[in-house]
Amino acid sequence: MQKHQTEEVIFGAFSLIFWTFTLIPLIKYICIVLSADDNGEGGTFALYSLLCRHAKFSLLPNQQAADEELSAYKFGPSTQAISSSPLKRFLEKHRRLRTVLLLVVLFGACMVIGDGVLTPAISVLSAVSGLQVAENKLTNGEIVLLACVILVGLFALQHCGTHKVAFMFAPIVIIWLVSILSIGLYNIIRWNPKILRALSPHYIIKFFSQTGKDGWISLGGVLLSITGTEAMFADLGHFTALSIRLAFALAIYPCLVVQYMGQAAFLSKNPSSMSNSFYDSIPDRVFWPVCVIATLAAVVGSQAVITATFSIVKQCHALGCFPRVKVVHTSKHIYGQIYIPEINWILMVLTLAVTVGFRDTTFIGNAYGLACMTVMFITTFLMALVIIFVWQKSVILAACFLLFFWFIEGVYLSAALMKVPQGGWAPLVFSAVFLLIMYIWHYGIRKKYNFDLHNKVSLKWILGLGPSLGIVRVPGIGLVYSELATGVPAIFSHFVTNLPAFHKVLVFVCVKSVPVPYVPPEERFLIGRVCPRPYRMYRCIVRYGYKDIQRDDGNFENKLIQSIAEFIQMEAVEPQFSSSESPSLDGRMAVMSINPVQSSLSLIASEQDFISIDESIQSSRSLTLQSLRSAYDDENPQIRRRHVRFQLPSNPGMDPSVREELTDLVQAKEAGVAYIMGHSYVKARRSSSFLKKLAIDIGYSFLRKNCRGPAVALNIPHISLIEVGMIYYV
Which residues form the K+ potassium transporter integral membrane domain (predicted)? Predict the structure, then answer.
């Protein structure tokens, strides 16, 4: 563009920025896309969860009818009106199309993670490059070193959480917006007020007629003016749609437009300052304050994108598309603020590598622009599907939306792809690696789930063993963890056939994620009965949304006992649940709404600071186990579990069979709770293809061995954990 530095070309470039800024962030995102929130959450995964609720697009077959009764699940129009849609039936019928849809969503998520690498690098490096304008003595190496120091400090402070410094963010952003607005107005008035004419799209035509191919290639730089747009939608969960609309329309949009207009006015009279137009256009008197506030604003923007990256990784993990990682809740008062140590340090290493490797904002900008435009392109596609399946509008309207914005974004994307050799390859490489990790993990999870699904233990076989299961039933509660939402997992048969004794009360626990952002605590537990009453076998499905945090509050056992007690009481009162006595059916399930450590109709709960053995209920917990438990609690004071004593209410009208079952439940709780999990080894069958063996035996096996174990992810105390080895041939 060095040979096209005329006033008309500069006016045309500004006109291009203005109309791009108006059509994509203002019209597409503010007016349309923000309306497609998922219970207040935004981003590509929010759109995908909306689609999964209104059509059967999910690849993991663990959906239940009870999930559709969640209050958050009913968000949006009813799905009945589009039940006969030919397009919906076509997509649901073809598994490959649903796989392609998942890959598109994952690719968009990977590009967001790529943004988490590139945004801090380009933001901080651009901000500190202003020092080179003022101090010509500083070399490129010294500027890069200073940027790296700031970046290391930024990532090192992530474990503290944003809430401790968040009070500074709003003043910094407000001062920054006022600064760029003032500088823009100053440059317009001083250098070239005629720039107002460039608001006409006529100058865009002049721009391309004079620049030709060079103008098209320069679009890769123009799109950098809208790179934060997708992050605005992804961070919707932290604000309301109305607040974002008002802030953007009344503050951000006019301030940025005036700033770009001022830069264009400055360049029209100073074309030699093209490479550092922003810092060169700042008046000398306010240069240093603006330089400082620019650096602080870069840190704030980087912080927002890093937080969004943690959030997207958490969502991927919840939907079974990312290996298990440690999720830390950094604020007791602000829900949703999380920190993921592994991801934080990976982002830091990659960001430093990009900063040191490229050393130039132009190359990083090429990579950054390609990543952001790819996510926008994917969002447009998902939004078109939302218009059809969620909003229930016509296919023609969705096609018009898709074609109009795909044409605009496609032009920019084609220009960005031309910059692949000049740094644009970076987000493609990052995305390819993360996409491979995500898909291999999801593929392994799906194959393992299907193996469990097709190898469930027959209820007839269990019923044939009798209430004792053919072995000795000892006092205590056994929580058998499985990913199955229905049926008895194959791991249970290993216990029954190989162990001489088992717990008197058995609960099959399934912790599953549902396609909603949050599940209210009163709707979390779904309780049912597996076999007839004498077997004392229950099922508990614990449901979490993709943004819920599974915090270890030490109260899970007590909530579970209360939920089962409520179910037993309700089952005796409501006849529709008596179908569980049928010898051939798995019992119906019901949502149990309980309050932690409070008395209910079925049990009276009393909290204690120490364990005391009730004389009326003999505990079989040995002194050795008690001492081990005490030592474990002393070593882990931050997750010390509350000792709650349950007692039966003195209700003479209670059914004798219900009282007997509740007594067994209380006695089992006093005897102790054991957590039983399968230590699985997933291997591909010998007849499998080479690619499948590569994915399962090497890829999935490597990820499983190097990620956090399921017991750690589920906050299971290792003192009470029993693991059973099992090989899955998938």
Answer: 3-463
